[in-house]
């Protein structure tokens, strides 16, 4: 299927979005796959106003009925899993299994949200006053703005949208300018679901094509009650204060610098497999990619030998070929960033293997690389920085407290893991004095989260939580209600205010 057929199958009206502004290229060969019109800031503001109008109607629809729309969206995603997954592969360069896996994640969050639509519970709280009842109720919040990164071009939208829709909100999405076609496809599938649903208000879910100016319009608009922004820490630094300046809410999902600790008791075979998937999967372009390996000195030689063998066998190539494990980097900027980091690592005492460009003859306009293993003498400056490419820095440790210190002494706090069969180490890792990340795993790697848990991280990762658990609460406003069913008017804290009339 070529790109036009793929878009057609997914219901995208390519002609309606065509224009001179944005050239979309596939990282597979660097070839142009579309030419799109961008939205202006004025159009973005109009879309947000329309979404607010939709919100005013949608918030009145019972939550279980709102869930029905998400159920229909899930049906569309099931029916189009392979096509949408393939589009993700073509536009973002992921291997087919990961493209389809990303769509499966969308289906899973839809299922979760449908169940949630019947479980938006509040609390009843004991009142200190006689004849009173207190409770907590949850209400729709407003317009949810979504800014997303290129590397999860569809799942991040669905994590936000499935929850926002059942919570009674409207959504305006600005996808990455590197992956707008996948966004147009999601919107087309959403519109099919809307048609089957029947009576949803106009403007409930919209997509804005464009770069950071459109993201800034979302950040600045007073009607965007929550801005959920996924991308680099640099982006979060710009967006967070803008939203805060108007007292809006933001949910930030930013960069990671994820480590795996491998202890002497670890199952090294399992550890090597977990590290390989984490470090070279998606060509190192996941927020949860494994970027640091902290290995006990006694097992370092054995583990590194296994990793070198696994790296040598990881097939690099066109992500649409079934045997490929490592696809291309997104673009030349990513390649240059990787090479600069490797130069810096060498200058800081690192021993680099791999990292060179591959397949340049076959794909002169694309950026394939051999994943790099870099043995570092210490956690130097370059190791503390997120380079969005397949570089794994390896450091050795002598005692577990030292390993934890290394793990935590970076500015980011997204994902972390330990491979150990020592119960004390495993529990310590997950305790208050253990990993300081939002995700702390035992005997599995750092990447590949399930939707049932809350996803996100601490420190420069931004503190946001999306997806499962009680992350839905970010998409609603909470009201505390106190009801007096007595004939008296006692004040809280026993305060006497003047005489009784
Ligand atoms: P990026 O920061 O370059 O862009 C992300 C999005 O932000 C894009 O849509 C972009 O147009 C927009 N943007 C950029 N600057 C902006 C500004 N000043 N105002 C408003 N919008 C702006 O990131 P990327 O290269 O697309 O993605 C890679 C980064 O995203 C990595 O750092 C990765 O760790 C991070 N990421 C984090 C998570 C997470 O859940 N924590 C998930 C995926 C990716």
Automatic annotation (TrEMBL):
Record the organism.
Pollutimonas bauzanensis
One MF term in the entry's GO annotations: aldehyde dehydrogenase (NAD+) activity
User: What keywords does the record list, in alphabetical order?
Assistant: NAD, Oxidoreductase
Name of the featured protein: aldehyde dehydrogenase (NAD(+))
- Protein family: Belongs to the aldehyde dehydrogenase family.
Which InterPro entries does the entry mention? Answer: Ald_DH/histidinol_DH, Ald_DH_C, Ald_DH_CS_GLU, Ald_DH_N, Aldehyde_DH_dom, ALDH7A1-like
Its EC number(s)? 1.2.1.3
> Which Pfam family name is an example for this entry?
Aldedh
Q: Which CDD domains match?
A: ALDH_F7_AASADH
Among SUPFAM superfamilies, the record links this protein to: ALDH-like
Its taxonomic path starts at: Bacteria, Pseudomonadati, Pseudomonadota, Betaproteobacteria, Burkholderiales
Task: Give the quaternary structure.
Answer: Homotetramer.
| Superkingdom of the organism of origin | Bacteria
Q: Where is the active site?
A: 253
Q: Aldehyde dehydrogenase domain: which residues?
A: 20-478
**Which Gene3D superfamilies did the record assign?**
Aldehyde Dehydrogenase, Chain A, domain 1, Aldehyde Dehydrogenase, Chain A, domain 2
């Amino acid at each position: 299927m070529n790109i036009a057929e793929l878009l057609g199958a997914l219901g995208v009206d390519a002609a309606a979005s065509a224009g001179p502004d944005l050239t979309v290229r596939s990282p597979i060969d660097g070839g142009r796959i579309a030419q799109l019109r961008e939205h202006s800031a004025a159009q973005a503001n109009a879309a947000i106003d329309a979404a607010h109008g939709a919100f005013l109607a949608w918030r009145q629809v019972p939550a279980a009925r709102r869930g029905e729309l998400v159920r229909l969206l899930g049906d569309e995603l099931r029916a189009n899993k392979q096509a949408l997954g393939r589009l993700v592969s073509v536009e973002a360069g992921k291997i087919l299994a990961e493209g389809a896996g990303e769509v499966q994640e969308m289906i899973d969050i839809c299922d979760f949200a449908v169940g949630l639509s019947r479980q938006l519970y509040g609390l009843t709280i004991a009142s200190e006053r006689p004849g009173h009842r207190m409770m907590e109720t949850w209400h729709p919040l407003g317009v949810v703005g979504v800014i997303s990164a290129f590397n999860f071009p569809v799942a991040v939208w669905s994590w936000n949208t499935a929850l926002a829709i059942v919570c009674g909100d409207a959504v305006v999405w600005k996808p990455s300018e590197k992956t707008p076609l996948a966004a147009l496809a999601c919107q087309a599938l959403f519109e099919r679901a809307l048609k089957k649903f029947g009576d949803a208000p106009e403007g409930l879910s919209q997509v804005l094509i464009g770069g950071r100016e459109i993201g800034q319009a979302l950040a600045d608009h007073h009607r965007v009650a929550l801005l959920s922004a996924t991308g680099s820490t640099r982006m979060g630094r710009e967006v967070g204060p803008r939203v805060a300046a108007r007292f809006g809410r933001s949910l930030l999902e930013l960069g990671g610098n994820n480590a795996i600790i491998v202890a002497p008791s670890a199952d090294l075979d399992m550890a090597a497999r977990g590290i390989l998937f984490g470090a070279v999967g998606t060509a190192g372009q996941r927020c949860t990619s494994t970027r640091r390996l902290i290995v006990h000195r006694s097992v370092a030689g054995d583990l590194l030998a296994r990793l070198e063998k696994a790296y040598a066998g990881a097939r690099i190539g066109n992500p649409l070929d079934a045997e490929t494990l490592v696809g291309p980097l997104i673009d030349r900027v990513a390649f240059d960033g990787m090479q600069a980091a490797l130069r810096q690592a060498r200058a800081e005492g690192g021993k680099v293997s791999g990292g060179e460009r591959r397949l340049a003859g076959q794909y002169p306009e694309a950026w394939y690389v051999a994943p790099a293993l870099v043995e570092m003498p210490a956690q130097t400056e370059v190791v503390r920085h997120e380079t969005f490419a397949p570089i794994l820095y390896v450091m050795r440790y002598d005692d577990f407290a030292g390993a934890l210190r290394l793990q935590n002494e970076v500015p980011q706090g997204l994902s972390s893991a330990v491979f150990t069969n020592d119960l004390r180490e495993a529990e310590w890792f997950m305790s208050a004095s253990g990993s300081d990340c939002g995700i702390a795993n035992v005997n599995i790697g750092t990447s590949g989260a399930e939707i049932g848990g809350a996803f996100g991280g601490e420190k420069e990762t931004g503190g946001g939580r999306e997806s499962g658990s009680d992350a839905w609460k970010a998409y609603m406003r909470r009201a505390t209600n106190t009801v007096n069913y007595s004939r008296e008017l006692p004040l809280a804290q026993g305060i006497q205010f003047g005489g009784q009339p």
